[in-house]
Amino acid sequence: MMRTLILGGARSGKSSYAEKLAIESGKEVVYIATASASDSEMAERIRHHRASRPAEWITVEEPLALGNQLLRWSAPERLILVDCLTLWLGNLLFSSGEQYPDVGNITLPPLFHEQQDMLASALTRCSSDVILVSNEVGMGIMPIGAISRCFMDEQGRLNQAMAALCDRAVLVAAGLPLVLKGAPC
């Protein structure tokens, strides 16, 4: 079982690279999509992604219980591709309809850490190859607003935790992969 974390910025080519690896694996692919159609622009993005995936892939849409889905679809003959941890983290952050203050300390909903712990546990128990796609959001300027800074910090922590559990970590920039950990892809 190979665990791969693929990081990159917006439009870096990380999802395309992950999909290429999934196709090249020759395994049955289960694609777990974490996006939610919260507005018409996002709904169009989801529609475009659905249409661009190979028809034979199994698509599972799961905005919150990612660890449960990893275990549900786990099988040695499968590769599970999760796209993406960044949207999933945002879903968790706003899972209870919280209104966060512009300044001050942020109290995260209980589901936030519960589901992250569940993902880490499931990743270690899953019998499939797994590819996780995530954004590297901390490479720019410090964002304005407490919730934006909290999200950036939590995304960095999640990426570090997943990289520690994965056999391989790859940074994609301008469509070019740079292996940070493990064997070349």
Count of DSSP strands? 7
The best one-word shape is globular
Radius of gyration: 16 Å
Number of helices: 6
Strand order of the largest sheet: 3-2-4-5-1-6-7
Described by its quaternary structure, the protein is: single chain
| Residues in helix, % | 40-55%
The overall average pLDDT, rounded, is 94
Order of helices and strands: EHEHEHEHHEHEE
Please give the largest β-sheet.
7 strands, mixed
Poorly predicted segments: none
Distance between the termini: 14 Å
Strand content: 15-25%
Could you describe the 3D structure shown?
The structure is a single chain. The longest helix has 20 residues. The two termini are 14 Å apart. The protein is an alpha/beta fold and 185 residues long. The chain is 42% helix and 22% strand. Helix 2 links the parallel strand 2 and strand 3. The protein has a seven-stranded mixed beta sheet with strand order 3-2-4-5-1-6-7, with helices on both faces.
Concise synopsis of the structure shown:
The protein is α/β, with parallel strands linked by helices. It has helices at residues 14-25, 40-52, 66-73, 85-93, 110-125, 146-165, and strands spanning 3-8, 28-33, 58-61, 78-83, 129-135, 168-173, 176-181.
